[in-house]
Amino acid sequence: MNATSSRTRIVAVKHFHTTFVARGTSLWYNSFHCRFKVMANENLKVLNALDVAKTQWYHFTAIVIAGMGFFTDAYDLFCISLVTKLLGRIYYHNVGDKNPGSLPPNVSAAVNGVAFCGTLAGQLFFGWLGDKMGRKKVYGMTLMLMVICSIASGLSFSDEPTAVMATLCFFRFWLGFGIGGDYPLSATIMSEYANKKTRGAFIAAVFAMQGFGILTGGMVACIISAAFKSSFPAPAYEDDELRSTVSQADYVWRIILMFGSIPALMTYYWRMKMPETARYTALVAKNAKQAAADMSKVLQVDLEAEPEKLQEKSPNSFGLFSKQFAKRHGLHLLGTTTTWFLLDIAFYSQNLFQKDIFTAIGWIPAAKTMNAIEEVFKISRAQTLIALCSTVPGYWFTVAFIDRIGRFKIQLMGFFFMTVFMFALAIPYHHWTQKENRIGFVVMYALTFFFANFGPNATTFVVPAEIFPARLRSTCHGISAASGKAGAIIGAFGFLYAAQSQDKTKTDKGYPPGIGVKNSLIVLGVVNCLGMLFTFLVPESNGKSLEEMSRENEGEDEEVTEMESQRTHENRSLPI
């Protein structure tokens, strides 16, 4: 009897303990669930206010502050193509040659491509750092690095060719490193400030400042070269090879490169005055109160100071290399990286070496018929005209239509027309090289630039800033942009060799025979066609909030639903 009674007591105690623990776990879960829902709602007050806020003066201020960084980026990246021929005349002239001096292939590749290597590294590093430290803390670093290295690029030491090129490449690498940081940070900051109705136009407007940077680069080079040409007249190379390059020409390329520091320096103060974005403060730093206070000041939105700092960890906190990220965003990241990679192969190979294409069709006279400074003027004038007629309008067409047509359609259309115009230039290439058809070639060439900018060159920048979670947004944009710069490196280095004539007697000095301009354009047409296909991996983000696109709230709901299901099952199995 006593033994039976003891066993009964033990069973009762175990049953009570199991019931108590299960009930206690359920109560803890319900308490956590309630607290988490409150936190989510607190965050959403700030984020919803941003999504529905009217367009205000601060939006335009942010566009200018972020956009001036991109203005400087474009100026610094593309101005080097205006002075490479001059560098060859100054530092690599061989007395008695029938043609002016030119940079050796390895030096030309390094000078043109080293900034892209730095940009790629900067995009990855500063993209990651922007998610770890916050957008604002990193934003000033990139700009100051650009200012210092832009000035240093024009102060390359010594007058020996090797020393000048080595120091020029060194400072342009670090200039590119700073430029690289501007890509993910500017895009992310603008996307997190904007309302969802006009977000695409705001981000595209920041990127469109790149067009003005390219245009200004050509105009500055035109003005400086025209002033020096007027002040220091010189004969053509074929008339007097030594006197065709005046000693003052060494100042021309230095002034052009150093000018890029001015717009960056002018915007440094205003960058430091910008508050951290509300989405980073609320979703990553978990401080909804500070986010509300910051946005109340700058956007003139009436937001209540929200409760205490959010310290609890959100269930939706998977990392970049997790299975959950791969499942949700893996194809999206593949789409943004491949499309940007393919676009930049075509875009940068054209942009950096358009002077060679213009020479090939006779739009720029043969080098030996000009003096050194006159050649800079002719090359910069050609780039200015292309920028004015096609590059700048293309960017602003995107700004005007991106929130009406949508990102996907604009990108698909851009790749399609780039493919069409590339093949239209390449297949009847001999026809376009005839003197009476050269203007037609330039028009077709300009149209490829127009649809690059009213197309994937803008949308590949916009979309990665909209579709990834806040805690990974800057990192993923940096990865996408770095993929693009890998394509730019291929275009910058590869096109130097590929565009060379198949006839050994017609290649540039030091270069082996290539596949020719015609076949190079065919290759670029195929690249654009592949970009059109990979566009189908990229989702449409038009009119949707950042949280809806990144599915940050959805992750919370899935986690809660799963926990609720488990608790319900356990509760049902418990005796009453």
Summed up:
The chain has 576 residues and is mainly α.
Shape: globular
Mean pLDDT across the residues is: 82
Radius of gyration: 29 Å
Distinct helical segment count: 22
Low-confidence stretches: 3-43, 308-313, 555-576
Instruction: Kindly estimate the percentage of residues that lie in beta strands according to DSSP.
Output: under 5%
Helix and strand succession?
Answer: HHHHHHHHHHHHHHHHHHHHHH
Gap from first CA to last CA: 28 Å
Tally the beta strands.
0
User: Which percent bin holds the helix content?
Assistant: over 70%
Summing up helix and strand content along with how strands pair, one would put the structural category as mainly alpha
Reported for the largest beta sheet, the result is: none
GO cellular component, one term: membrane
Catalytic activity: phosphate(in) + H(+)(in) = phosphate(out) + H(+)(out)
Keywords: Membrane, Phosphate transport, Symport, Transmembrane, Transmembrane helix, Transport
Main location: membrane
Chart the SSEs and their pairings.
Layout: H1 2-52, H2 57-78, H3 80-91, H4 105-133, H5 135-153, H6 161-193, H7 199-231, H8 249-258, H9 261-273, H10 278-284, H11 288-299, H12 323-352, H13 354-360, H14 372-405, H15 407-426, H16 429-433, H17 438-453, H18 456-462, H19 473-498, H20 516-534, H21 546-550, H22 552-573
